[in-house]
Design brief:
Layout lengths: L4 E5 L3 H13 L3 E5 L5 H7 L4 E5 L7 H8 L7 E5 L4 H9 L4 E4 L4 H19 L8 E4 L4 E4 L2 E2 L4 H12 L7 H6 L9 H19 L6 E4 L3 E4 L3
Parallel strand pairs: 1-2, 1-3, 3-4, 4-5
Antiparallel strand pairs: 6-7, 7-8, 9-10
C-alpha cells in the first residue's frame, strides 16, 4: 500500500508532537510545520494524504492557507481551532476545510477524523485504498487528479465527470455530446475528440504516467482505473 503522509501545521510543539505520535501509531507518516510559511508550496510539490491545519498561526493564518491550497488541491483538510463561535467554523468550512476540531481535543479523535476524511476521499475516487487518484466536485463543477484541481472548461468537466462516474463503460461520441446539452452547436466527432485531447493534456500535466481516458476503436471512450 502506498505510504500516506499527513501534514500537521501547528505552532504549539507539544500539540504537534502528540498528534504526530498518534498518527504514526495509526500507520501514517507525518511532516510537521511550525508556521504557515512553506505549507502551500509543500502541498503543491508533494501532496499529502491529508492536512491538519491550525486556524491561528504565525506568518500566515489557517484560513488563508486553506483558501490558497483549494485553488489547486483537493487534499482533505482538518482545521484546528480554539475558537468555538459558529461564525468562525462556518468561515473555515467556506474557505475549503472538510472538518473542524476545537481545542482542547482528544488526539485519538483527531486521528479518527483524519482517517475518516482519507477513507471518504479514497472511497469517492478509487478502488485503490492507498492512493487518492481522482475526485469529482459536482457542486463546483470541477475535478481533481492526484489531489490537484484540473483547469477544465465546463464542457471538459461534463465529459470527464460522466466518464469518471462509470469506470469501464464505453461512451460513444454522441453519448458524450449529450452530456453537454448543446448538440445543435457542435459536431460530435470533432468536438468530443477535441475535448478529450484537452482533458488528457491537463491530466498529463499533473501525472505524466496517467493513461485513464482510453480510446476504443470504432466505439468511443472509456475511463479506466489504472
Amino acid at each position: 500500500m502506498t505510504e500516506r503522509c499527513v501534514y500537521i501545521v501547528e505552532d504549539e510543539p507539544k500539540i504537534a508532537a502528540l498528534m504526530a505520535d498518534y498518527l504514526r501509531q495509526a500507520g501514517f507518516t507525518v511532516r510537521i510545520f511550525a508556521d504557515g510559511r512553506f505549507v502551500v508550496e509543500a502541498v503543491r510539490s508533494k501532496p499529502p494524504a491529508a492536512l491538519i491545519l491550525d486556524l491561528m498561526l504565525p506568518a500566515n493564518d489557517g484560513m488563508s492557507i486553506c483558501r490558497e491550497v483549494r485553488t489547486f488541491s483537493a487534499v482533505p483538510v482538518l482545521m484546528l481551532t480554539a475558537r468555538v463561535e459558529e461564525s468562525d467554523i462556518l468561515a473555515g468550512l467556506e474557505c475549503g476545510a472538510d472538518d473542524f476540531v476545537t481545542k482542547p481535543f482528544s488526539a485519538k479523535q483527531v486521528v479518527a477524523r483524519i482517517a475518516a476524511l482519507i477513507r471518504r476521499a479514497e472511497g469517492r475516487v478509487s478502488s485503490d485504498p492507498g492512493s487518492v487518484k481522482f475526485m469529482i466536485d459536482d457542486a463546483r463543477q470541477r475535478a481533481a487528479w492526484r489531489g490537484q484541481w484540473l483547469a477544465l472548461s465546463l464542457s471538459e468537466f461534463q465529459i470527464l465527470s460522466a466518464l469518471m462516474k462509470q469506470p469501464g463503460r464505453i461512451f460513444s461520441r454522441d453519448q458524450l455530446l449529450d452530456q453537454l446539452g448543446n448538440r445543435g452547436q457542435e459536431s460530435a466527432d470533432r468536438a468530443i475528440d477535441s475535448h478529450i485531447k484537452n482533458i488528457r493534456r491537463k491530466i498529463y500535466a499533473v501525472d505524466a504516467q496517467a493513461n485513464c481516458v482510453v480510446s476504443v476503436y470504432g466505439a468511443g471512450y472509456r475511463f479506466e482505473l489504472e
